[in-house]
Amino acid sequence: MSRIPLVDATSAPAASRDILRQIHGAFGATPNMFRAVANSPAALQSMWAAFGALGSGVLPAQLGEKVAVAVADSNRCEYCLAAHTALGKKAGASADQMAAAQAGRADDPQTAAALDFALKLVRDRGQLRDADIAALRQAGFDDGQIVELLAHVALNLFTNYVNVAFDVPVDFPKVALRAA
After folding, report:
1. How far is CA 159 from CA 34, 58, 156, 176, in A?
2. Contact indicator for 47, 159 with CB cutoff of 8 Å
3. What does the pLDDT look like over 128-179, one tens digit per residue?
4. 3-state class of 22 per DSSP?
5. Residues in domain Carboxymuconolactone decarboxylase-like (predicted)?
6. Which of these, 99, 100, 74, 84, lies nearest to 161 by C-alpha position?
7. Digit-coded pLDDT (tens) for 93-114
8. Are the beta carbons of 94 and 102 closer than 8 angstroms?
9. Please, what are the domains in the chain?
10. How many whole angstroms separate alpha carbon 163 and alpha carbon 74?
């Protein structure tokens, strides 16, 4: 059971209701994570805007979902792991590709470099070296893509923490975390 109420478009604060309707329209349902965050209109607005901005960014959706499952597994966030595995498959990734990404692996060198970077950011709390950025450039990422990749990681940290801290019930098909 969630540690905070899972509100809906009728019980949420007034300033959250329109955004919850938008989310419902986008997903065909209102995922529990958004229902938890909707307790704060400012947090919901921030989260939804970030999803929208990054969804129209230059990085492919499939890469964003692969980064999300790697970060989710690293943070032991069952909710995000389940959600982004489903979204990754919807974006065209195979089950095997999503499982590999969950473990921080990919056959494609550019995807592998992005996953390495994302997991280093999480593990080392953003403490990067020049070589970490150089590795992304060598893999073919430009500066804008590198910043956008970091933004994906930051958004996933926010969503992971929401779901883990508030014990939000998973409402996507469950995916097992890797063994610690």
Report:
1. 9, 21, 5, 18
2. yes
3. 999 999 999 999 999 999 999 999 999 999 999 999 999 999 999 999 999 7
4. helix
5. 49-122
6. 74
7. 999 999 999 999 999 999 999 9
8. no
9. 14-56 (no CATH), 61-166 (1.20.1290.10)
10. 14
